[in-house]
Design a protein that fits this description.
- The protein has 203 residues and is α+β, with helices and mostly antiparallel strands.
- The protein has helices at 39-55, 88-97, 102-111, 114-123, 165-202; strands at 2-5, 11-22, 29-37, 58-63, 68-74, 85-87, 126-134, 140-151, 156-163.
- A hairpin with a 5-residue loop joins strand 7 (126-134) and strand 8.
Length: 203
């Protein structure tokens, strides 16, 4: 695959494939070369990679039949050094060790073990859980783990980990602002009631 420049000055991604055939009678090798424009699929692939890196910490597949995982993409809060493939149970143990709370460690090991995960996905299309994990630079951040079948017929599960720390903080701030507004409204209502009671008494 390579980038080619057209006469118009535009650039395109090209995939070249060659089929070699040997003539039995002469031993000559004939090459049939095919080229096709793959710009759209390359651009789409890069766009998806960029989106995944911003939206998700980690995306990986799990082969439930062989207990193997494969890393698809990592994002801005993901740990720098991660294996790209290997034994899923070891991956799960490593993930659970990053949990800040003991209850989150247990939740991850219980709900993401292959047997339980597949059992839950037979009942529901998507399974979600939220935990606090140690992220990049050793900081704890709130995460949402989502599991779903990618190819149910062969037992391939897609697992995504999304950082929701900022969302949780924003929701907490909104809740605090709402509670403060309600408190002020109650105080204003009480002051109004006292004022009316005082006026009624004077009258």
């Amino acid at each position: 695959e390579y980038i080619a420049e057209l006469k118009s000055g535009n650039h395109v991604w090209v995939r070249a494939e060659a089929n070699l055939v040997r003539r039995p009678e002469t031993g000559e090798v004939i090459a049939f070369i095919y080229s096709r424009d793959i710009t759209r699929e390359r651009v789409l692939g890069h766009v998806l990679e960029r989106i995944m890196s911003f939206e998700y910490d980690e995306i990986y597949t799990v082969d439930s039949e062989n207990s193997e995982f494969g890393l698809i993409a990592i994002g801005q809060y993901a740990l720098d050094e991660q294996p790209v493939s290997g034994n899923y149970q070891e991956k799960l143990d490593s993930l659970a060790e990053r949990a800040v709370l003991e209850e989150d460690k247990e939740k991850l090991r219980r709900e993401l073990c292959i047997e339980n995960m597949c059992e839950m996905l037979h009942k529901e299309q998507t399974h979600l859980l939220e935990v606090t994990l140690i992220s990049k630079n050793g900081k704890p951040r709130r995460k949402r783990v989502r599991c779903m079948y990618l190819y149910e017929d062969v037992g391939t599960v897609l697992v995504t980990i999304t950082d929701i720390e900022d969302v949780v903080k924003a929701e907490k701030e909104k809740q605090e602002q709402l509670e403060e507004a309600l408190r002020m409204a109650r105080e204003a209502n009480q002051a109004k009631s006292r004022f009316l009671a005082s006026m009624s008494h004077e009258i």
